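TA notes, week 10

Several of you asked for a full example with nothing omitted. So below is the full record: structure tokens for the whole chain, then the designed sequence directly under it. When grading your own attempts, check the secondary structure regions first.
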């Protein structure tokens, strides 16, 4: 059984939640109270991953506001456009840690160290390992 798989549909969310609840029944009351989980797919590639990084550990509203400012400043989100922002990204709401992460990601993509088309074709665990290296 593959424990890591790509979520592509509402059915994938239902299946994943069922597996999680089967592993830990203490989560049943939370799942019942929360109701159905929404499908939230990010655009593949730099833009999607950068947006996910921005949204970590902040409210959804804050993440959307910060990403909106960054995307507007970049024009078309890309590694080169992000690097061109330099420290201006901090003034748009990013923490220093997220700015460092996005800078490293942008540099890795431009240097050929992260190839999103390759990563997208890998099984979940292999994709994580590829990005993690």
């Amino acid at each position: 059984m593959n424990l890591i798989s790509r979520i592509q549909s509402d059915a994938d969310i239902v299946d994943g939640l069922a597996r999680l609840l089967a592993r830990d029944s203490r989560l049943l009351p939370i799942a019942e109270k929360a109701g159905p989980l929404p499908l939230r797919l990010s655009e593949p590639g730099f833009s999607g991953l950068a947006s996910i990084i921005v949204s970590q550990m902040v409210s959804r509203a804050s993440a959307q506001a910060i990403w909106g400012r960054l995307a507007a400043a970049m024009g078309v989100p890309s590694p080169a456009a992000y690097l061109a922002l330099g420290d201006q990204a901090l003034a748009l709401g990013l923490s220093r840690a997220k700015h460092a992460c996005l800078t490293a990601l942008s540099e890795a993509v431009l240097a050929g160290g992260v190839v999103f088309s390759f990563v997208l074709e890998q099984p979940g665990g292999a994709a994580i390992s590829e990005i993690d290296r």
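The chain has a mean pLDDT of 90. Use that as a sanity check on your answer.
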